[in-house]
Amino acid sequence: MTRWQKSSRPGADAANRLEVAATGPSAALRESDDPTVVITTRPAALRALTRHLQAARFARTATRFARAAAG
């Protein structure tokens, strides 16, 4: 049996969250609102995607702060 772990992102709609599971040598992803569609990838690729998304979020936040400070 696959153990799916839901995203713990605050404020995310509980009915529509990303879920992740370890499936042998792969990582599996699915949306909780449509659990029949599953995407698998290598754990290293998932880590790279996560780092990229976090960096992009940080860059957007830094840009907003810079614009606000500039007036």
From TrEMBL:
It comes from the Bacteria. Residues 1-33 are annotated as: Disordered. Pfam families: DUF397. Residues 3-53 form the DUF397 domain. This is DUF397 domain-containing protein.
